[in-house]
Protein 1
Amino acid sequence: MEINSIAKGIVIDHIKAGYGMKVLEYLDVDMSKNTIAFIMNAISQKHGRKDVIKIENLTNVDITVLGLVDHSATVNIIDDHKIVKKIKLSLPEKVTNVIKCKNPRCVTSTEHHVPHIFHLVDEETEEYRCEYCDDIVKAGER
Ligand SMILES: [Zn+2]
């Protein structure tokens, strides 16, 4: 399948196959305002299958959150049919209100106004530690 490249916007490439929906969810894109091309299971030259998302006229996305969903993806910012910026994603050091603490005794479970803050402890295992109760959560297991 071939989809014409966009004149201006953002292309998220090399998303692990099956993760595209999750990426879209986290991006929180206004579906009524933006034109979105969502390609599932495209053949990747690098590794097997991938998902690709193209969003027209959108250039400011929360890269931090994206890195958490799939840090092997690449983000291309397109302007005037050209890639003006290529961003390699990585796991964010600190995330707020993305991962939720599951510890029922944690202050974030009992007090609803408390933000869920997590810190990266191990990049390899993708483990995050809750700021308040030190519970460990794996990034892929939200
Ligand atoms: Zn906690």
Protein 2
Amino acid sequence: MISKLNNKELDQKIKSLARAENRLLALVIEHIKEADKRRLYLDFNYPNLYDYLVKECGYPGGSAQRRIDAARLLAIEPKLKAKIESGEINLSQTTLLQKAFREKSQTVTLAQKRSLIAKISDMTVNESQVMIAKELDLKIKEQTKVTHQKDGSVRFEVTFTQEQWESLQKAKDLASNAIQSNDLPTLIKYLSDKFIKQKEGSTATVAVKKQVLQRDQCCQYKDHKTQRLCGSRWNLHIDHIKPKWAGGTDQIENLRVLCQKHNHHVYHQQSGIRILSS
Ligand SMILES: [Zn+2]
């Protein structure tokens, strides 16, 4: 009875089953390799191995394809069996390799393939992906693709630089408590909402803004060294002296008039402080 196992026993059991699962997987791959070599599928009137595995053996399409990818790698590198058994290499990695080899089928050599199989051992899937792309010089997909779908949703395929991606990951970590999700669209929506709220956050009424304009008349920015007032009357904005995000209010005492230039200037200063303090 599984429910009678104590935690230590349960842990041991799961680990030993996982090892057995890897051993079984390696055996399955080995047999699929042999079936591929013999073209066993022809005996069963299927045009290819994939159809045989899906329709005759009951594998879901993706699982069948991953097993075929691994079997074909095993055909060129017998050491792969032991690596699958030990869990050093998983099927996500072998599929990454086969995809890359197909993309580079004109140029990739057998020796390169074997060397890459050795290199992905004990790497994470992400690390393998980066390494394979570098070694085979796979082209970087930069084009952004936007597809509007029938339910009104939008499918968005985009390439981030490493720096942009790391910044996004950091934002995700910081927001993880607030959004309770690992999902990128949820994060981007959350960040967008915060930004919009911050930019449009002034709930000062029209009447209050009018009072501030009448009181100040012109840009109130003072140069720190000369203490000279800017005094511009061109393109005036209402600014929060203590920003909203720092707890500043919409009270008239916390508001002042700034010209566009100084409004931007102050905003950049404050966002700098905000980044340092967060
Ligand atoms: Zn000014």
